């Protein structure tokens, strides 16, 4: 990995963080109104993650132009425009189009058969957005009586049921992708790509432990979990910046 590749990681991180947070925001907003009582306070702003995604997308395309990157930037810009000037109609669908364009531009497209690898990566990105992005989205909210109150606990319960399923999908698809990206088990400690992957996995496991302790004890939402989610996304961005993983070198 060259210095130029490493310099591209912050742009990837901004775009990935914005799009994954967008998925989490949409999930939280849906969970808030999916059943009674409706939680009117649980409506995080959709525009903020789209702004992050657009800034990161523009920087990514400026450093490494591609059709998929340009398509994401167009979708991110249009979604943001629809949120601010168009009344919001169609913004979610267009933004999910940008999310869908992440996988075809990733290392998965270099694997044969590419269609299967890209499909697995699509599921990985979407499920990661649901639980990791959802954790960050929840961390921005303030329930009327705090997270220990009835409404806060209700929201945590709704999210927790979905997050556990999404986490399982993320872990499974991540394992499948790892077997494609690594040429041998020893790559985990003998290559820079493998060491970043191990660090990412450690962050994910730490998030799972903290989340389990938080929900089991009925304690307020841990801000540490949200910080770990951002760190995990940063590690993902570093992996995406690698020109070739060990298995594809």
Write structural notes for this entry.
Helix 2 (9-34) runs antiparallel to helix 3 (47-63) and helix 6 runs antiparallel to helix 10 (223-241). This protein is mainly α and 249 residues long. Helix content is 73%, strand content 0%. It starts with a helix and ends in an 8-residue tail after the last helix. It contains ten helices and no strands.
Structural class: mainly alpha
Give the beta-strand count.
Answer: 0
Low-confidence stretches: none
Following the backbone from N to C, one meets helices and strands in this order, namely HHHHHHHHHH
* Proportion of residues in helical segments: over 70%
Distance between the termini: 11 Å
Number of DSSP helical runs: 10
Shape: globular
Largest sheet: none
- What is the strand content? under 5%
The radius of gyration over CA amounts to 18 Å
Mean pLDDT: 82
Summarize the structure.
The chain has 249 residues and is mainly alpha-helical. Helices cover 73% and strands 0% of the residues.
């Amino acid at each position: 990995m060259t210095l130029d590749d490493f310099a591209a990681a912050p742009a990837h991180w901004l775009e990935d963080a914005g799009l994954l947070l967008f998925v989490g925001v949409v999930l939280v907003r849906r969970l808030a109104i999916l059943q009674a009582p409706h939680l009117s306070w649980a409506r995080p702003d959709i525009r903020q993650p789209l702004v992050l995604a657009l800034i990161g997308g523009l920087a990514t395309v400026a450093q490494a132009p591609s059709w998929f990157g340009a398509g994401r930037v167009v979708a991110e810009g249009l979604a943001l425009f629809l949120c601010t000037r168009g009344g919001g109609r169609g913004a979610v669908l267009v933004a999910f189009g940008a999310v869908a364009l992440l996988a075809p531009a990733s290392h998965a497209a270099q694997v044969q058969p590419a269609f299967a690898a890209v499909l697995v990566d699509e599921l990985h990105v979407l499920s990661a957005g649901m639980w990791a992005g959802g954790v960050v989205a929840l961390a921005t909210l303030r329930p009327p009586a705090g997270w220990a109150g009835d409404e806060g606990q209700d929201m945590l319960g709704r999210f927790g049921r979905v997050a556990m399923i999404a986490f399982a999908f993320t872990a499974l698809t991540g394992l499948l992708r790892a077997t494609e990206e690594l040429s041998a088990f020893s790559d985990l400690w003998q290559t820079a790509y493998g060491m970043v992957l191990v660090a990412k996995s450690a962050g994910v496991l730490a998030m799972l432990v903290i989340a389990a302790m938080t929900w089991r004890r009925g304690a307020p939402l841990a801000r540490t979990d949200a910080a770990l989610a951002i760190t995990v996304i940063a590690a993902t961005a570093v992996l995406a910046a690698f020109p070739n993983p060990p298995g594809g070198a």
